[in-house]
Write a structure and sequence with these properties.
The complex is a heterodimer. Chain A has 6 helices and 17 strands. Chain A is of the alpha+beta class. In chain A, the strands form 5 sheets. Chain A has a 5-stranded mixed sheet with strand order 11-12-6-5-15, with no helix packed on it. A 4-stranded antiparallel sheet of chain A has the order 1-2-3-4, with helices on one face. In chain A, strands 10-7-13-14 form a 4-stranded antiparallel sheet, with no helix packed on it. Chain B is mostly helical. Chain B contains 8 helices and no strands. Chain B is globular. Classes of the chains: A alpha+beta, B mainly alpha. At the A-B interface, helix 1, helix 2, strand 4, strand 15 and helix 6 of A face helix 1, helix 2, helix 4, helix 5 and helix 6 of B. Chain B: Keywords: DNA-binding, Sigma factor, Transcription, Transcription regulation. Chain B: One of its GO terms (molecular function) is DNA binding.
Chain lengths: 362, 189
C-alpha cells in the first residue's frame, strides 16, 4: 500500500468520527432559508434608506437652485480611483461597504492613494508560503483594487486596500465541467510612519477575506489605535473588554465614537499582549445592531508579559507549565487584563482520557 | 430571492433541501477534517450553505453544485482563520497535558487528528482535498485558489510530515520514500 493510499484510508476513518449531523437535511435547509430571508429584509431596508438619501441629495439642491454641476470645490476629496468594484464588473448587487471614494484624511493625496493601491501584498518569501506557513493568497490584480481608507492614525499613516480575485487558476476556464468560483473580496492593511511615502508603507494585517456588507476594523495593540470602517451614516460603538460580574455573567460597556464618512478612529488602552483579543466593536444602523465583531489585530514584536501561575497541588511537568502559561496568556488577552490585576491558580493539572466523540477534556 | 419563504430555491434533485439532505453528511466530514472539531465543523457547514443558498438557482444552472459548495466551505474556513484565530478554540483534549501518559492510550484516529491539526492550515486543506476528497491537483488548486505546483508541494510536504508523525502510531504509514505525489491526472469529478 502506498503512503497516499494509507493516508486515504486513515482520513476516511477519522472523518467518520464527525458522526451524524445534529439536524436533518430538510430541517437545516428550512433554517437556512429562514435566516437568509431575515438578512435579505434587513438589506432591503438598508438599500431603501440609502435610496431615500440619494433622492434627497438630488432633489434638495435643485429646489434651492444650487445644483450647478461645476460647484465641486477644487480642494474637495479626490474622485475615486477607477475601481472594478464600483463599475460592476466584479461587483455584487448588495450594498458594498467598501465601494465609493477613498475615505480618510489622506484621500486628497491622489498620488499617495494610487501608489498604495499598487503596493504588493505578498508578505512572505515564497518558501514560507510553500511551507504552508501563510495563506499565500495571490495578490489581487491592481485594477480590481481600491483604497477604502487612507489617513493619519495616531501620528502614523494607515491605509486599507480592498481587492477582488476570482481565485481560479487562469487555465481553469478551459476545463469542462468546472464550476466558476465566487469572486472573493480581500483586504489588507498597510501602515507607515508619519509622512511616509507609499514606498514606506508596509503590510501589517491581511490579506484576508471580507464580505461587502460587513464592517472591518483593525487595532494596533501597542498603541491601542483602532480604525473601524463602516458605511457612511452608521453608528460605531466600541468596547474595551468583557466585564465579568460577581454572579459570573459577562457584560460589556459600549461607548459611541465619532465617525466621518463611516470611518471611526479612536484609541483603546494599549495591550501588554502581542495581539489584541478583548476589544470589540459594533455597528448600529437605524437604531439596530447591524454587526458586532472583533477587530483584526496587528502583531507587535514585544514579548508577552509573563503571567505567574500558582500550583497549590504541586507543579506539573515543564510541558504542563507551558500549557498553563499559554492558557493564562490566552485568558488574559481575551479579558483585556494586565497580569498584575489577576491571580491565576491552576487548581488541578493532569491528563484526561477523551478518546470518543462527544467526550470533553477538562 | 427565489424560494426565500419556502424550504429553498429550485425543484427536484438540485433543490436546496435535496442537496442539503444528500450532501450534509459528507460536507460535515470534510469540515471535521479541516477544523478538527465537531462543533466548529457544523458551524462551518452551516455558513457555507448559507452563503450558497442566496445564489442557488444561478449555481445549479451551471451544473452540479457540490464542487461550488466545497469551494465555499474551504475558503470560508480560511477566512475564519483570519478573523478568529485568537478566539475560543474548543477541543476534545487539552493542547498539552501535564503528563504524557495518556498518549499511550491514543487510538490511531486521535493521532491522525492531532497530526493534521499540527499542519499549517493551507497544507492541511491540501492534504484533505487530495487524499480524502480524492481531488486531483488541478481540482485542488481550483478549490484552494492557488497553482498546481503549490498543491504538489504542499501535498508532498504534508504527506511527509504525517508520515513522520504517524510512523510511531498504531497504524503507521509506510516509511518508504516515494517522493512527491505523482502528477497523475484523474478525470474531473
Amino acid at each position: 500500500m502506498t503512503p497516499e493510499d494509507a493516508l486515504r484510508r486513515r482520513l476516511g476513518g477519522l472523518a467518520e468520527q464527525a458522526g451524524r449531523p445534529s439536524a436533518d437535511g430538510p430541517g437545516l435547509a428550512r433554517r437556512i432559508a429562514r435566516d437568509s430571508a431575515g438578512r435579505q429584509r434587513a438589506r432591503r431596508n438598508l438599500l431603501a434608506g440609502v435610496g431615500c438619501v440619494v433622492l434627497l441629495g438630488i432633489a434638495v439642491p435643485q429646489l434651492v437652485g444650487t445644483g450647478a454641476p461645476d460647484a465641486v470645490p477644487a480642494s474637495g476629496p479626490a474622485p475615486a480611483a477607477p475601481s472594478r468594484i464600483e463599475d460592476g464588473a466584479f461587483g455584487t448587487p448588495d450594498a458594498d461597504m467598501f465601494a465609493g471614494p477613498t475615505r480618510g484624511s489622506l484621500s486628497d493625496d491622489r498620488a499617495f492613494v494610487d501608489a498604495v493601491r499598487a503596493l504588493p501584498w505578498t508578505p512572505d518569501p515564497p518558501s514560507a508560503a510553500a511551507e504552508g506557513l501563510t495563506d499565500h493568497l495571490p495578490d489581487p490584480p491592481v485594477e480590481t483594487r481600491s483604497v477604502v481608507f487612507a489617513g493619519e492614525v495616531s501620528g502614523n499613516r494607515w491605509a486599507l486596500v480592498v481587492g477582488r480575485f476570482a481565485d481560479v487558476p487562469p487555465d481553469a476556464s478551459r476545463l469542462p465541467g468546472q464550476v466558476p468560483g465566487p469572486p472573493q473580496l480581500v483586504a489588507a492593511w498597510f501602515t507607515g510612519p508619519a509622512d511616509a511615502g507609499p514606498e514606506e508603507m508596509r503590510l501589517r494585517s491581511g490579506p484576508g477575506g471580507i464580505v461587502s456588507d460587513w464592517p472591518l476594523a483593525v487595532i494596533d495593540p501597542r498603541t491601542g489605535a483602532l480604525v473601524v470602517v463602516a458605511a457612511p451614516g452608521d453608528v460605531v460603538e466600541v468596547s474595551e473588554r468583557p466585564e465579568i460580574t460577581a454572579d459570573g455573567s459577562t457584560t460589556r460597556a459600549w461607548q459611541e465614537v465619532e465617525t466621518v464618512d463611516g470611518i471611526a478612529i479612536t484609541r483603546m488602552p494599549p495591550s501588554v499582549q502581542p495581539y489584541d483579543a478583548s476589544t470589540s466593536y459594533r455597528v448600529l444602523r437605524n437604531g439596530r445592531t447591524e454587526a458586532r465583531d472583533s477587530p483584526w489585530s496587528f502583531h507587535s514584536d514585544q514579548p508577552p508579559v509573563p503571567v505567574p501561575v500558582e500550583y497549590p497541588r504541586g507543579r506539573p511537568s515543564a510541558l504542563g507549565e507551558q500549557a498553563a502559561d499559554n492558557a493564562a496568556q490566552h485568558a488574559l488577552a481575551e479579558l483585556g487584563l494586565h497580569p498584575a490585576e489577576v491571580e491565576i491558580t491552576a487548581q488541578w493539572v493532569g491528563s484526561v482520557p477523551a478518546g470518543d466523540v462527544g467526550q470533553a477534556a477538562a | 430571492m427565489d424560494g426565500a419563504d419556502g424550504e429553498g430555491p429550485g425543484e427536484g434533485p438540485t433543490s436546496f433541501p435535496d442537496f442539503v439532505t444528500r450532501q450534509q453528511q459528507s460536507l460535515l466530514r470534510l469540515a471535521f477534517l479541516l477544523v478538527g472539531d465537531r462543533g466548529h465543523a457544523e458551524d462551518l457547514v452551516w455558513t457555507a450553505l448559507m452563503k450558497t443558498y442566496r445564489h442557488w438557482d444561478r449555481i445549479t444552472r451551471r451544473g452540479e453544485p457540490s464542487a461550488y459548495v466545497r469551494r465555499v466551505l474551504v475558503t470560508t474556513h480560511t477566512s475564519w482563520r483570519r478573523r478568529a484565530w485568537h478566539h475560543e478554540q474548543p477541543t476534545g483534549r487539552l493542547p498539552d497535558g501535564a503528563t504524557t501518559e495518556s498518549d499511550d492510550r491514543l487510538d490511531g484516529n486521535e493521532e491522525l487528528r492531532r497530526a493534521l491539526a499540527a499542519l499549517p492550515p493551507r497544507m492541511r486543506a491540501t492534504v484533505v482535498l487530495r487524499y480524502y476528497e480524492d481531488l486531483n491537483e488541478l481540482q485542488t488548486a481550483q478549490l484552494m485558489g492557488c497553482s498546481e505546483s503549490t498543491v504538489n508541494t504542499q501535498a508532498a510536504r504534508g504527506l511527509a510530515r504525517l508520515r513522520t508523525v504517524l510512523a510511531t502510531g498504531p497504524a503507521p504509514l509506510p516509511t518508504a520514500d516515494h517522493g512527491p505525489p505523482s502528477r497523475r491526472r484523474e478525470p474531473p469529478r
